[in-house]
Specification:
- Helix content is 48%, strand content 13%.
- It is built from 9 helices and 6 strands.
- Helix 6 links the parallel strand 2 and strand 3.
- It is globular, with a radius of gyration of 17 Å.
Length: 217
């Protein structure tokens, strides 16, 4: 194993529900149907940046244009609603121990997240500390862009790496970059294709048995 790519929310920190609640709260004023549609879209598009989600909510659900000022206000409000809770969120079972194993074996770990870069760096610095991840990457770059860049710069063989994620966005990024995939999620209710290797608790052994990524049909 040459390297491991990790999504962050739902893979390292148990923080997905915090962001789900915040998206719902931001659109509660538009009524329960809109709030429900917002939450459902968010959950179905895990790993997609909040910028893309806010644009979709306004243009496709509310039918109103998105402006730069509105985007700034929404992102600021979202940050206020989530940051304190994220800083207090539990770690996904086994995540810290797994990161420790990788460090002991000198296998670099990289973050490829949909969270904005500056915010991601702030959370990783506060909750993980320095030296654990080789590099930390968030939006506006997409996950495939991040993974391809890291693979190229570090001269890594995609087939000898692993992508660990909790959403189809992660699975699709791994498939696009031809990196074996390991899902993190509930034993019986995850959204990954049948046959995908999925664990509810990370450990060193699971990293050695990811799902080989097949070419797209």
């Amino acid at each position: 194993m040459q390297a491991v790519f990790f999504d962050f929310d739902g893979v390292i920190l148990d923080s997905v529900s915090v962001k789900t609640e915040a998206f719902g709260d931001l659109y509660a004023e538009y009524g329960p149907d809109v709030r429900r549609a917002v939450v459902e879209y968010h959950l179905a598009h895990g790993g997609v940046s909040r910028f893309e989600k806010f644009r979709h909510f306004h243009e496709n659900i509310l039918g109103s244009p998105m402006t730069e000022e509105l985007m700034h206000d929404l992102c600021s409000a979202f940050n206020r609603l989530t940051m304190t809770k994220i800083m207090a969120a539990d770690f996904i079972p086994g995540a810290r121990k797994t990161l420790g194993e990788l460090n002991l074996r000198s296998i670099p770990a990289f973050v490829a997240s949909g969270t904005p870069q500056a915010e991601l760096e702030q959370v990783v610095s506060a909750r993980i500390g320095s030296g654990v991840f080789a590099e930390v990457h968030g939006s506006p770059r997409t996950k495939p862009e991040i993974v391809r860049d890291v693979l190229a710069r570090h001269k890594l063989n995609p087939g000898e790496c692993v992508f660990v994620g909790d959403a189809m966005t992660d699975f699709n990024a791994a498939r696009e970059c031809r990196v074996p995939f390991l899902g993190v999620g509930p034993d019986s209710s995850h959204a990954f294709p049948p046959g995908t290797a999925v664990v509810s608790s990370l450990n060193w052994e699971s990293l050695n048995h990811p799902t080989p990524i097949q070419e797209k049909a």
